C-alpha cells in the first residue's frame, strides 16, 4: 500500500505528510525508555559489534550526495558533540576528484537513500581500498551500499517514490542522531544530554504532526512567491543544513533559483544581493545561535530585506523587526533534532510552489531518483 498515492495528488506530498509515521518506523525497537533496571538508551543492532573500533577511529568521515549529504551535515554538530571523534563531511564526487585522504584508522559512513548512487558507491570502493571501516546508512535493504559495507543501519523510512527526497531526509537525520547517541553511550558526563535527546526523539513524530499543520500557511506563502526569480535561505549551526536542503527542494522541484546560505558568511558576499525585492527566509529557532541570528535579521532589515523568519512558537513578535516581515512559527524540540522540524515547512513550500508554477512534482525535468552513472 506504500506504492500508491492514497488520497494525495503527488508522491512528494504524500511522503511529506507521512513523516510522523516514517519517523516512528525509523525509531521502532531502537529506543529504550529506561526504568530502574535499564538505562534510557539507543540500540542499533547493526553497529554493536563495531562500536569499539568506531570509538577509537581517527575520524568519522560522512560521505554522500544531494539530500543525503545535507542530512549528514545536519547531524554533524551532535556527532561531534557526543562521539568525541573528529567528524568530517565529504561530497562523494569531490572526495573522488581530489582523491582525498582516507586512512585505515578512519570510519567512513556512507549515507544514501537508494544505496545505489554511483558516486557514493565509487567512494565506498575507494574507502575500502584504503582500509577504512565502512558503515552504510541506507533506506534500501539489499542495496549495493548495504551489501558492500562492513556494517550499517537501515533508516526504514519506507519506499520513497518522489524524486525529491523528503521523508528519507528526516529519517536519515534521526538515524545519525541515534548513531551519535550510541557512540557516546560510554561517556558518563553526557548522560543527561543524551537522555534529553532520547526524550526528544520519543516526542518527535508528534512535533512533526504539529508542524505539518502549517500546510495552508505555506501554500499561502507559495502564492505570494510564485512569480519570484529567486529565494535565499539563511541558516547556521544546526540549521545550516536546513538552509541548504530547503533551497535544494525549492530549486529541484519548483525550478526557482534558490540558495542556502551560511548566515555567518552573510557579510562576505550575500549581503550585496539584499534589496526590497529578493525574498529571504531566515531560520532563527531557539538554540545557541539564536542571538546571532537575531542580529542577522536586524542587519537584513536595515538593508530593507524582504524577510520571512522561521522561529520557535511564541517568538514571532520578538524576532520580527517590522510589519513587512512574515513569520513561520514552528514547534520547538531539542536543538539537534530541530532540523527535522524546520525542514518540513520548506518541503511544503517547495511542493506548493511547484504545483502553482505548473511543473512536474514527482519527476522534475533532467533529474533521476537514483543516479547510477557518473
Ligand atoms: C539524486 C536524487 C536526490 C538524492 C541524491 C542522492 O540526485 O535526485 O534526491 O538526494 O541522488 O541519492 P541517494 O539515493 O544516494 O541518497
Automatic annotation (TrEMBL):
Q: Which reaction does it catalyse?
A: D-fructose 6-phosphate + L-glutamine = D-glucosamine 6-phosphate + L-glutamate
Q: SIS domain: from which residue to which, for each copy?
A: 50-189, 221-364
One GO BP: protein N-linked glycosylation
Source taxon at top rank: Eukaryota
Does Coiled coil appear among the keywords?
Answer: no
What keywords are annotated for this sequence in UniProt?
A: Aminotransferase, Glutamine amidotransferase, Repeat, Transferase
Q: In which pathway does it act?
A: Nucleotide-sugar biosynthesis; UDP-N-acetyl-alpha-D-glucosamine biosynthesis; alpha-D-glucosamine 6-phosphate from D-fructose 6-phosphate: step 1/1
**What are the EC numbers?**
2.6.1.16
GO MF = carbohydrate derivative binding; glutamine-fructose-6-phosphate transaminase (isomerizing) activity
Q: What is this protein called?
A: glutamine--fructose-6-phosphate transaminase (isomerizing)
The species is Papaver nudicaule
Amino acid at each position: 500500500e506504500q506504492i500508491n498515492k492514497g488520497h494525495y495528488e503527488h508522491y512528494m506530498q504524500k511522503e511529506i505528510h507521512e513523516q510522523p509515521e516514517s519517523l516512528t518506523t525509523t525509531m521502532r525497537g531502537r529506543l529504550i525508555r529506561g526504568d530502574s533496571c535499564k538505562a534510557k538508551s539507543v540500540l542499533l543492532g547493526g553497529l554493536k559489534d563495531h562500536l569499539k573500533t568506531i570509538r577509537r577511529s581517527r575520524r568519522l568521515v560522512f560521505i554522500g550526495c544531494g539530500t543525503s549529504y545535507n542530512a549528514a551535515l545536519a547531524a554533524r554538530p551532535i556527532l561531534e558533540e557526543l562521539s568525541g571523534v573528529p567528524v568530517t563531511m565529504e561530497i562523494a564526487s569531490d572526495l573522488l576528484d581530489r582523491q582525498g585522504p582516507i586512512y585505515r584508522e578512519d570510519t567512513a559512513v556512507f549515507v544514501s537513500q537508494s544505496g545505489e548512487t554511483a558516486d557514493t558507491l565509487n567512494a565506498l570502493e575507494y574507502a575500502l581500498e584504503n582500509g577504512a571501516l565502512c558503515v552504510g546508512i541506507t533506506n534500501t535493504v539489499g542495496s549495493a551500499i548495504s551489501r558492500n559495507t562492513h556494517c550499517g543501519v537501515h533508516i526504514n523510512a519506507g519506499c520513497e517514490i518522489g524524486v525529491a527526497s523528503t521523508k528519507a531526509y528526516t529519517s536519515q537525520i534521526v538515524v545519525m542522531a541515534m548513531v551519535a547517541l550510541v557512540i557516546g553511550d560510554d561517556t558518563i558526563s553526557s548522560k543527561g544530554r543524551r537522555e534529553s535527546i532520547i526524550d526528544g526523539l520519543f516526542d518527535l513524530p508528534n512535533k512533526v504532526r504539529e508542524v505539518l499543520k502549517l500546510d495552508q500557511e505555506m501554500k499561502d506563502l507559495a502564492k505570494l512567491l510564485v512569480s519570484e526569480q529567486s529565494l535565499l535561505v539563511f541558516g547556521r549551526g544546526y540549521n545550516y543544513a536546513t538552509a541548504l536542503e530547503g533551497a535544494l527542494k525549492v530549486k529541484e522541484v519548483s525550478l526557482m533559483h534558490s540558495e542556502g546560505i551560511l548566515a555567518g558568511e552573510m557579510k562576505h558576499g550575500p549581503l550585496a544581493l539584499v534589496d526590497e525585492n529578493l525574498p529571504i527566509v531566515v531560520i532563527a529557532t531557539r538554540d545557541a545561535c539564536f542571538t546571532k541570528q537575531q542580529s542577522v535579521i536586524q542587519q537584513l532589515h536595515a538593508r530593507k530585506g524582504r524577510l520571512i523568519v522561521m522561529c520557535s512558537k511564541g517568538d514571532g513578535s520578538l524576532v520580527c523587526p517590522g510589519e513587512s516581515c512574515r513569520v513561520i512559527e514552528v514547534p520547538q524540540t531539542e536543538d539537534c533534532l530541530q532540523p527535522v522540524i524546520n525542514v518540513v515547512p520548506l518541503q511544503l513550500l517547495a511542493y506548493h510552489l511547484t504545483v502553482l508554477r505548473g511543473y512536474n512534482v514527482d519527476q522534475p525535468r533532467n533529474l533521476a531518483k537514483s543516479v547510477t552513472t557518473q
